[in-house]
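quick one, two chains, predict together pls
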Amino acid sequence: MGVPYIPVIGLVGTDLLKRRDDMLLAPDPFDGKTISVVARAMRPDVAVFHVDRADRQGNVSCGYPVEAVILAEASRHVIVTAEEVVDRLEEKHAAGTFVPSILVDTVVHAPFGSHPAGMTGRYGPDKVHMREYVAASRDDAAFAEYLRTYVFEVDSHADYVARFVPRELQQPARVA
Amino acid sequence: MSVSLNYSESELMAILMSREVRDREVSACGALSQLPATGLLLAKELHAPDAELIILNTVFRPFQTSRQFHFLAQRGELGLFFASGVQIDGRGNYNLHQLGTDPERPEVRFPGGYGGGMIYYCARRTVVFRTEHTRRSLVERVDFISATGSSPANVLRLGNPSKLITPKATFRFDKENACLRLESIHPSYTLAGIQENTGFDLGVTGPVAATPAPTAEELRVLRSVVRPKMIETGTYAAWAERSLGSG
């Protein structure tokens, strides 16, 4: 939207507000007295999100309806990872949300880029890996070990897929 | 006292929720809301054929994006919303964030959320519900305020909680005094029992009515029409098969 802040009806008096420095109470500038929450616009330096298909110009077909346009609009630099990269993608052939190339800076070909989460229409979540992640997140040492195994000591995305994405997820999905 | 009832606790709560739905209004519930979803579908069959329903995570979802739902609520077009919290207090505040006396070191964390905290102020009426009626869920003061039952007069607010529904009783929200008051007691429960299991003052000033029990017609439509519809949603299929009588 490009506005510096936006009024929001709600949240007044909550403990949530006490913990947010990007939301505060302000009077209506027109009547000078009605109070509402005002939320500062988020302006991320970088947005990264994973999609179904993208083309070489950066046009994006998310594959399902998702709040990707507002994220891309708000962010200064947008990196899209895609299951599939095609030569040319037009809005009329997009599935789900379409993000035009003018909003996208970088496209990365990353099959199984959602793993261990699933990708609508392509593969489901890896529940075994998810359980391992949840268990690892319970303490710092276990999580450091998780990061070492799955992030820092992985050579490349292809190496990650080969080593950690289960074979059964790699079968082509046939979703009715 | 032992009374044999011809309905389950879930069926009773869903039926009580359905009675809150008004025809021609937009009524909504979030994801993971099997009781409100059942109540909404039941109301549409019984007395609110032209109610507009939004049941997130099912086919009853008119929008592609959550942004559209957000602004529908902000515009004040949501007549009724159903909300729950891990704790609800006598002021109508609810907590869906965390438990524990030290907010910096919560004992347990819950989904929390911006959505409920926004909608509670925007929907014209919100029915709060809790499937557990005990002193740990209905408390004097919530550990963390996710949304307040009322606001000062100069705060921009479009609606308030209207009612609290539990497996034992219903409470009415007294807007003037900003508190919940015991409204009716479900069959087989007593005022003393409610008192014993509620952590806040019941605000009772006179005799308390008995909750009108589910009618034969409500139970018939619930089991023969709504149950299959709930199974069709996919999202709530397993729950509906288990919790709603097949009639």
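Chain A has three domains: 5-40, 43-110, 116-176.
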